[in-house]
Each structure stands twice: as structure tokens, then as C-alpha cells.
Amino acid sequence: MAESGHMTNKMKHATVVMGDKSDHNEKQTLLAVLQFLREHNLQETEAILKKEAKLSEEDIQTEKSQPSSVVSHALAAYKSTDDPSIYEDVYTDLKQFIESCLDVHRVELNTILYPVFVHMYLELIYNRHEWHAGQFFEKFYQDHEDYRQADLARLGAVKRREHMENNAMLQEFKTSQFVIHMSRDSYTHLKRHLQGRHLILLTNLIHEHLFIHVFDGIPRTQEQILATSGALQGEAEKEANKAKVYYGLLKEPDLNIPLEEEEEGGEGDGGDPANKSKKRKAKKDALLMKKAKNDPNAPPQTRIPLPELRDQDKIEKINIYREAMKRVKLSADNLPSICLYTLLNSSQGVSGIDFTDDSSMVAAGFEDGNIRVWTLTPNKLRCMKPSSELEYIDKEADDVLERMMDDRTGTDTKMLTGHSGVVFAVSFSPDRTSLLSASEDGTIRLWNLHTWSTIVCYKGHMFPVCDVKFAPCGHYFVSGGKDRTARLWSTDHYQPLRMFVGHLCDVECVLFHPNCNYVATGSSDRTVRLWDVLNGSCVRIMTGHKESVHCLTFSPDGRYLASGGADQTVILWDLSNGTAVAHLRGHTSTVYSLCFSREGSILASGGIDDSVRLWDAAKVLEEQDTDNDTNVPSTLHVNTSPDLLLGTYFTKSTPVLGLHFTRRNLLLVSGPFLPS
Amino acid sequence: MAESKEGKEQKVGSSLTVESVRGIAESVGIGNLSDEAAAFLAEECTYSLKEIVQEAKKFSQRSKRRKVSTTDFDVALRSKNIEPLYGFRAPDFIPFRFASGGGRELFFNEEKELDLQEVINSPMPKVPLESSLKAHWLSIKGVQPSVPENPPPASKELQKKEILDTGIKNKIDKGHRNDKAHKLRHHKADMVRLKDLTTHELSVEQQLYYKEITESCVGPDESRRAEALQSLATDPGLHQMLPRFITFVSEGVKINVVQNNLALLIYLMRMVKSLLDNQTLYLEKYLHELIPAVATCIISRQLCLRPDMDNHWALRDFAARLMATICKNFSTNNNNIQARMTRTFVEALQNDKVSLATQYGALAGLGELGQEVIRTCILPYLSGLGERMRLATEGPIINNVDKIAAENIKKQLSKYLPSALKSSGVPETVEDYTTNYGYLGPLLLSSIQKERQVSVLPSLVPARPTLQIQQAGRTSQQFVIQQQGSASTPVTPSTTSFFSTSAQGQTPRTPSTPGSAGGQQKFVIVTTQPRPTSSATSMLGNSSNGNTSTPTIVKLVTTSQGVVNTAPTVQASGGQKIVVIKQEQGVIQSTLASSVITTPQSLVSAPDLGVKSIFNQGISFSVKAEDKS
To answer: Would A313 be classed as within a structural domain?
Structure first.
């Protein structure tokens, strides 16, 4: 049974090697030393060693020339002939050692148990000690934290070496190292223990598969460790979050003149013009001042080529300003009103909802592949006139856009049909003329909202596309999918402009930074990453979620990112250093939607626990400890205060899948009604 | 090796067994699968299945659903480049069936073969409704409006937590009393206590609703009462008014028992029934008020003015059923409600000083608690009871009241006892029964024999649920008839404000039913006065409006209450008493006004006769309600 006939060449090679292992292993070590010497140009020593070890050039050549794929190399790392029964003893010994440590070190050292357990199990499986592996798993799998159990269940399903080869999760375990941060004291403890006991097996394993990042300072507490643990491959490497992120907002284009005009036009309808204009002017000045001064953290204006502003966009921006002036200021004492748009009779299942920025339309993607768009204003949704009629329109007229629409087609809702699989996400373009949809059929469709038809079908992802989002400036959009990549597209290219590769699992959600220079992604490898659009590199890896991440939102000032997911927690991240600022706990099921109020003081979250919750973001930022040293993780403080929850509003059996703050800070919420 | 693995597997997670693989192999025609192959296949299939299920789970998360559906499985298969098996549309519940034979056990899902012709010829299913968008306010400035689209404000669990919280708070308070050094914390504790006392503030709408409901429940209009009771039984979100309703009931019972006002007691018990029926209310908190009230209606010495004529037996039966429901729903090991109630009833049954009516009530109460209770608590006392009944019916001094009571007890016994007696093991002869049960022996025997003859009905008949349902419908009917026959319908419930109006000399309209031709009668009106200083006129307006028109505060009733409108019998004579209780900040003050109406005709001929006129004629005096109870 052990030697079934289905072994690949790789495998054969491995078993052959196992035969004369001791001899071969030593040789390999020597060869490695030789290589090291050669690299450092220590020729004399090299010559002496060669002589002493009686190694021929031939050996060296063969070693070098041996081609090996990454996978086989990684797999070979598990090769060992140790007695399978000692694994249990070694693991128990390690556990006992950790138990006997001082409390301060114990919590830190505890973190190595999980990766050691996983790799020991895989080593046993790889060496075909299936029975021992089973015993080992059975005996120790309950030691680990609850949030690991899902992964452990997947691990436990792997029972044979053949399974290891095409298991996506294990591939990651094999090829990358598990990252752990540890204080120097704890590390010294561990090292001393390993050396003292001559635990070669354990030492090798830790050396091979773990990356222990040692920092100077006091050891971390249980809470601090818990705050960052949970990702598939441990914590983020320290270096990963060192790059500078220009999180500031771009300077707003100069819109002074039209704004004045609008200002005057707006005065006419006011009751007390003198008073109002004064007030408005003061406010407007403040707004303009803010926009006018350069944010030191903002990226250069031309870092990313942005689409030029059209007249239409300028009018839109003016509208935004005007609405912003009428905005209600929200705080813990002044909570927003919430309007719930319930989708009735949606038995086919709703899987994605998006509002337009001006709150005039809402779109929902359904599980049967259809998309519906509703108008939320009295304005009907209209089709463009057929081309034969368009000919007769005066192209020079001011209201040409109005004239080209056919009033006879006005309805409250329109249906878009085209996808052959579940529509996971929809996203309106900022100018409200088009809509993007991501589907399980592996395509992204761009719909025109004048003709209500598909314009482009982007076929780049090889697997289902989980999310798609337009950039705030339009033109660009980003998508993420089951192929573990996020891709940057522009609407005028049918191929992606950038591929953001690095997530170890499916990319569940994507989002553009407000300044269009960065893209955030959340994945089921339980990390949130930030990518630079300019060069496609990963500039932040943020760990702390214990389950897959399903929604993201940036704070209006661009510095903070909120993420929520299946672990029922909303985490607020500071992008300046990639650390968590607050863990917001309260939801009792997966969080699927997040939105900051327009001025950033309130964070709203919604999920399939049929509730909307409001969080005091202003308080989090107020209490944030800014002078901590990111080099020493034990100085970081994560705010988990339950006082941050300002309100919980339950719906009647309607999961909250869409959240949106209007420009005046009214919270719009949407979800399908699911009668029980 | 395979077996040992299997044993271990089950703890970690389910897995396909070798047996299953064999079964599947046989079903596709492979009979001679070797052990090794089966074990290998089982392991491989388990692994693959787990992989796909895990993938499917991800897709269900992506579709923002809680449950994994068959489509998720299809999609997961497709994403692994495997052609999905189309046509599996699983309903929520898959009825697995079990079969065993030849030493093998099988679970299977029975699939019927469909006749295509039938499918084609059957009418098309209805087109599902088009999805649509509906907007409502989930929250206005942080406050959730109580509209039907929003969930009820406080769930049962929340109401439960509330009491637990208070308990904790009290504990804190006690702890701090001993330790006065922590001034700050003590201060905090004080604030907490203050907050405790100021709960249950009612909004204006709630006050109106409360007024409407209580007025309708004890008012003259049977259809409005039905609506009000329906509202109490079904409306969510009544929890804030619950303490008031409970006080209304318990105070009402206290006074009406003293006043022997049968009709009002019945109305109050019907309110209790509605409250018990309401699934959204957490009544545990108020049992200490409810149980005495209900128990009073079961075993009180006198519940009506003329025990020889009025049918107070029905009230006792009804209240006994309520008590049984309370025991069933709320009795726990801690509060021991059933045990305590049983003890109370048994004491009443044992004691030969109490009236026969009380013993009737005790019998009813025990009888409703089930066979076991009947056997252990009624049977031993039968001979004593029999002796009393013999005295009542055949004794030297025959009291009419006692005689009727004895008759009713006999009926009661023949209703509850036969099924318990049948299994008691006493030989069914007259002699044996007489020795065992004394005077009642022959009666019981005959009732057993009668029941045996009519044993077409299965022995399950006395089982609780069915019996209760049948009786509930009938009794409500009985009450109505009885109430109309004996006492007229009460006049108006009104707010305390009518004192001021009567002083001003106004005449508020008071509807009195044409059938209320007097009869000796007492009415109790319990009203809360939330704002003593509020304008009297507005309150008056409400009260008079509320009686003449019917504001649509309560829901429409869908179930028919079985009201029988028999022609009202006109009763002669009519001393009438009206009791008004003003309930103000926890202090209960009651004003008892007794008035004598000169002729019943005056009521019939003048339906507009106001409360004021009653008061003008009557001599009013006031007492404390506490004194009376």
C-alpha cells in the first residue's frame, strides 16, 4: 500500500535518495559549504576542504546541474528518515518546555507550536507514516486556538503524500515560511532549549519552515499577539511594511470660478440670503483652504496618469461641494438616520449591492446572473434613443444629453442580463454612465447605463471574479478573483494593466484608495494588502483577521483602512505604518459591508447577522497612540474598547449587504428580505 | 489498518466508510471490489469531497449566504474543472431514510421516478414575483422607530436579561453599602439605583394604547373586547406596558373579589389568558402578581353575589386552566410553582372548614394538572369530601348554596376522575368503591361505567392539549351568556379626570348597553394617571371619544370568539357600585363610589346617562384599596 504505482518521477527520486541518505546528506552539506566559500571568494579554504572531503569536481558539477522545480525542492525539504514515533515525543517535549517558561515568554513561544505542528504532520505524511501522522494529529490538534481549527480541518483531510501535491493550501505552507515575531529574550530561551537538547529534528524544522523575526524590547502580551496573528502564513515580515505610502489626498483641481457662480445661483432659493451667504462663504473658504494646501503625505499629482477632468466632472465636483455644505455633522451624540432599502421577492439570492456616489441609483447582482438597477430619485431610468432618431437631435444644444434620452422607456428599474454565473459584485462608475459587474463565470462586464447593454466583456481572470471596483477618478478599475490575483484595468484596454500577485488565497475584495495611487485587497488568506498602482508592488501586508476578509473601506482622509470579514470583526488599520488601530467586535456573523461617514467620524458596518452597527471612528483616532515604535511590536496598542459601538440596529431578517453615506450623511442601507 | 483509521477519523471529521464505497460500487454494478481498493477509494473520495465542500463553503460566503447550497457545490466543481452534476436542487430538508437488511445498514434519500408526460402536462408553476425595492427608516437620529418593518423593540431574551441585570445591580448596591470608603463608586451605585426606579416610562401613544386596551377589556362592547384581547395576545412590543397590565389585573382581582363582581373577574382572567398567549412577553418577572390573582379566582370563597344562581363555576374552571398553563410554562426546579400550587389546592381540599365552592375550585385546579396529580392529591381525600357532600345534599339542614356546590363538585369529579380511577386498581364494584371512596363511590363507579360505554373515544381524550382547546372555545361562550344573564354589562371605564368634570357639571357621554337593565352590579375601573397635572379636558375628550368611536389602535380580529348574543334578560333591582382606582406613582388609592340606580328603566331609556348622574345620585365614599384586599 505504501508503494502504490502512481508515483511520479520526483517521488522516485526522493525515495531513492532516502536509501543512501546519510552519505548523501553529508555530501550535500559539504557541497553547500563549498558553495558558500566560493561565493565569498575564500579559495584556499575551498581547496583544502575539497581535498579533505575527497570531493571531486564531478560531484560539484552534478549537484549544480541537477534541475529541480520549486515544488519538488520544497517537498524534498520534508524528506527525513527519522523514526516516526519520535515526533510525538519531540512535540510533547517542546510543549512542556513552553509550559515551564516564565509567563512573559510563554505566550510568545506558544506561537511556534502551530507551525511546528503543521510541518511535523506534513513531514510524517510525506514520509508515508500515515498512521503516525493520524495519531499525531488526533492527539494535538485541539491544542491550537479556535481560529486555527478551520485550517486544521483542511490539514486533517490530507492523508497521503499524493494529496499534498495539488492542495492549494499546502503549496503555500511548503513554499513560504511562517513568519513569527518574537522578542530577543524569548528567542534566546528557545535557542538554548533547542541546543541543550540536541533536538536536531526540531531545529531543522524551525530553520526550514519558520522565519522568526527577533526584536529588541519586552515580550508581547497575549492580546498583542492575538491582534496580529491569524493569517495563513503568520504575521507580516517586518520589512514588508517599511515602504512609504502616500496616503494623502490629491490636491483638488481649481474650481474657484464656477463655484462662485454656483454660490450666487444657490442664494436665490434661500430664505435669508444675507445670513446664508455669509455662512456659506465662511464654510466654503474653509473647504477651499483645506483643499488648497498641499498634503505632505499626498503623492505627486502626476504619479499616476489620471483622466482629464471634463466639464461634466467639474459640475459634479461643484455639486459635491454644495451638498457637503449642507452636510449634517455626525458624532457620537449625533447619530445618522438610516434608511433601509429592502429588496423584496429576491428569492434567487442577492450577492452584491452598490450605490452611486450621489445616491441616485442602486444596483444589485443576483445569483441567477442578472443585475438590476433601481432609481432612488423620481427621475426614471431611460434608454438612449435609437440611432435613427439620434440623427435629428441638435448636437449643439445645451441639453443634448437630455434630448438623446427616450422618455418613453422610463422605468423605475432596469434589468441587465448577460452573465452566466453568480454576480458577486457590481460597481458604478463615478460619472454614473456605466456599471461594472464581476461574476462567477470568470468575466467582468462593463455595462452602459444609457443603452443598458454590455460594452466590454473583460476575460482576464482564469477563475471566478470575486470583486470589482471603479477607481474614484473613473477610467481605472480593479478586480480580484479566485486565481489569487488582483488586476488593474482601464476601461479602454481589454487586458489588465497590472497584476497584483502575492495573496496566498482567493482575493475576496478590492478597493481603490481615494487618491487612486493604491489598491487595497482582502483575501481568504486572512491578510489585507495594499498595492502600489505605479509599480504593482505590495507595500503593506496587514495581519490580524482570523477568517477571510470580505469588505474594505478607506477613511475619507485616506490614512485609515477598515476591513471586515467572516471573523465578525472590523479592523481599522493605519496605513502609515500598517498596524491595526482598533478591533471592533460586536457583529455575530460575517461582516459584508462597511462605510465611513463623509467626514470620517462614524464607521458603519453591516452583515448577515441582520444588523447595522455604528462605530465611533473619531474616538478611535483620538485615542490612537501615535508615538509608538513600529520596530517593537510590543509597544503597539490596539483599541478594543466595547464603548466604540455607538448603536446596533436590527433589521427584520434582512442581511445588510450594501451601505452608503449620502453626501449629506444620511446612511442608506440595502439588503434582500429573506423570510424564514 | 483501514479500520483503525476509520475509528480515529470519526473524531476529527466524518469520512466515507469502506462499507459505503462497497455499497456505491454495487449500485453501479461492481460486485467484487477488493478490500484494499475500497479502502483506498474511501480515503481518496473523502479527501476530494472535503476539498470540494470547503471550496463550496467559500462560494456560499462569497454569495453572502449562511447556508451552502447545491449551486455552490456545482460552482466549486466547475472551478476545479470538473463537470458538475446538473439537476440537483436540494430543498432545505432532505428526508434520509433508513433501511437495514442482510446485516447491513443503509441511509438513503428516496427519489421518486417522475413521469415526464406528467411534468409536461402539469400546469406551469406561477411566475415568481418581480423583485422590488421598498424603503423605510431603520433609525432616525439613532433611534429605531417602531414600525412594522422593524423588528420588535425587545426580544424575550432581552427582557430576561433585564431582570438579570437588575439582580446584578442590586448585588452591587448591597456590596457598596458595607463599604462606604469608595465614595465615588458608591455614588455610581446610587445613580444606577435611581435609574432602576425610573424605568417603564410610557410614551403618549403607549398610554393611549394602554387606556384603550384596559377600557375595552372591561368595557361593555364584546366585539371591542375581543379585539383588545387579540391585540394583547399577538402584538409584539407590549413589554413596556406589561407591568401596568399586570397591576391592572392583580388590583382588579383584589377589589372585584371583595365586591363579588363575577363579570369583571372573568374579563380580567381573559386578559391573563391573552397575556399568557403572547409569545413575545417574558412573564416570569410578574408571576408573583399573576399567580395570586389567578389562584384567587379558583379558590376564593365567594366570587359572585348570588352563589346559588350565578355560574361562578365556569370562572373557576377557566382560572384553573390558566393556572395549569402557568404551571406548565413556567414551573422550574427553582420556583417550584406547580408543587406550591398543588399544596395550596390540597390544603383547601383537606380542610372541611372551607366552603364547598373553594373545594370545587381546588378540585378544578388539581384536575387540570393531570392524571398524576389527580391520583396522588384527589383520590386520598375523596371520602372526606364525600361526607361533606352527603351532609350538604342529604343532611338535616339543606342549604341551597351548598347543594348546588355539591352538584357541581359531582359533575367535576365525574369529569376528572374516571380515567385516573380506571388505573387505580380498585375492583369495580359498588362495595369496593364505597369502602374506598365513601359516599362518592357509587357515583364514581357509574361515571366510569358510563365512560367505558362511550369508549369510542380513545383514552387519549383527557390528554391536555385537545381538552384545553375544546374547552377554551366553549367557556368563552359560556362567559358571555352568563354575563348577560346575570349582570348587565358594565358602564364605562373612565379616567380619574371625570371627577373634575363632574365637579364642573359637565355630562360626559357614557354608552350603556341597552340590555344592561340593572341588576345588582359593581364596576371596577382601574386607571393610571400618568400625569396628574395634565389638562383634564383633553383626558376627558379621550375617554368620551374612546367610548363612542373606536380608534383603530387595536388590530382587526380574525378569529371569531364565539360570541353569542342572546336576548338580555332584564333583571330587577339595581344597586350599582362603581369603584375607581387612581393609580399614581406606585401608590394605589381607590375611590369607591356606590350608587343606587332607581329604576332599571332609567338606564334602558336613557342610553346617554352619564357617569355624572350616577354620582349625583349616589353616595360616594372612598377607601384605600389595600384595606379592601
So the answer is: no
